[in-house]
Amino acid sequence: MKKTILMVLCICISASVFSQKMSKDKNLIISSVEKHKEELIKISDSIWALAETAFDENESSRILADYAEKNGMTVTRGVADIPTAFTATYGSGSPVISILGEFDALPGISQKASPIKEPFKEGAAGHGCGHNMFGTASLGSAIAIKELMDAGKIKGTVKFLGTPAEEKYFAKVWMVKAGLWDDVDVNISWHPGAGIEADVQSGLSLIDFVVEFYGQAAHASMDPWNGRSASDALELYTTGINYYREHILPSSRIHYHIQDGGQVVNVVPDYAKLWVRVRDPKRSKMLPTYERVKAMAEGAAIMANVDYKISLVSGIYETLVNRSGGEIMQNNLELLGPITYTEEETVFGKAIQKATGKPEVGFDGTVHPLRETLENPGGGSTDVGDVSWNVPNINLSVSVAPTGTPWHSWAVVACGGMSIGHKGMIHASKAMGMTMLDLFQNPKLVTKVKEEFKTRKGDEVYEPMIDGPPPLNGE
Predict the structure, then answer these.
(1) Where are the beta strands (DSSP E) in 261-333?
(2) Among candidates 315, 309, 322, which has minimal Cα distance to 286?
(3) Tens of pLDDT along 256-284?
């Protein structure tokens, strides 16, 4: 009997502590997101169906900007000389907390909300990185903060940034250069994933450039000696890159995509073109590899007796981690708890895993503990890195797909267009809103996050790795 009473008492105490941590104002954030939930899902699904790619996200951008405007935020469109980039702000004074919203899709992975590979529109794009949910969730949390400002609960400025072209050209680099984070104290971001965690890992810095070779056309059989093959130079260049891979750092990566290797077999090609990318977890280690790969293009041109041209497309920094911010986000994730899935959703998820050759284990909707920050985390790259070198950044990952799902694939597109993705999106919106609320209500937290940012950045001077205006014409 005593044991039973003790257990009940412990449960009551635990519930009391939990309710104290989940403040009334955080419950208001949750209520706001829930109030807008159906509209947010509708917006996400609309962007999912549009599946617009880098710098062509005209309708996707408009839908988000219009909804921000409808909810009383001040919208400025076409910022940083990018038609699909925009800001939506509300409030005045400090602190200024910003939040990122991406919305571009990936080419060629169109997919229905189906657990088997089935294009929504053959050959079209698809949201294989979940950006239809990314921008929508972030806007939902910004609106929740705006509503608490209206209720007199908090003061300051919330700033949503609609950031296009993350998948190809990295528009945030031009937006940083335009000074859009100059007045910001802390930035919030998230990314769809296959687990729930406050993300305290960096990513890979990278640089993108195009190499073009110019030769002399000739008949490939009748007088090939009169030709100088641009395609020969391209092949010599890629061969050099592939031999060089053995001698780069284990943490580095080199990718290339041949965009033009000649048009017909009976002509010595006078033009060839490829897109090259170099990556490393540290920009300081990536740049020497980049210089070496550039020099190899000259060598290939000399061997094939052709001319060449190198054009910088864009480049981005690795993400500057902020563990102080991660701890704030972690606390809110633990308050929210796990995501649970219906039997129907679990069946869908396991069918995705079966179709992609992964163990049929379903979803990971649990909240992961805050991990140690790794020196060389591997993984991908994001222009959030450039934001993070200019303002402290707090990042989050939330499940929108089953465990082991191949990213940038039809499988993620499928989940992002139905309830599995919707659940993750709404969960992320609540977590980010609660974290922003902590920053607005506790100046000491803002100070702590900013102090860590200064320490980690040290003497590094940020220099954007871009040359000229945004490549809006796709070149």
Answers:
(1) 267-268, 271-280, 307-316
(2) 315
(3) 999 999 999 999 999 999 999 999 999 99
Q: Could you give the count of Cα atoms lying within 13 Å of 388 in the half-sphere of its Cβ?
A: 28
Alpha-carbon distance of 277 to 299, in angstroms, equals 18
> CA dihedral in degrees (117, 123, 125, 126; nearest 10)?
-10
Give rounded-to-5 percent helix, strand, coil for the chain. Answer: 45, 20, 35
Q: Which amino acid is at 242?
A: N
End-to-end CA distance of the chain: 76
Angle (deg, nearest 10), helices 323-336 and 443-457: 140
Please report where in the chains the tokens 């041109």 appear, as a residue.
301
Query: Whose CA is closest to 75, among 89, 92, 60, 91?
Result: 89
Q: Mind listing the pLDDT tens digit for each residue in 81-136?
A: 999 999 999 999 999 999 999 999 999 999 999 999 999 999 999 999 999 999 99
Q: With 0.70 as the threshold, say if the pTM is over it.
A: yes
Are the C-beta atoms of 205 and 283 separated by less than 8 Å? yes
Say how far apart CA 407 and CA 126 lie, in whole Å: 12
33 within 8 A of 430, measured Cβ to Cβ? yes
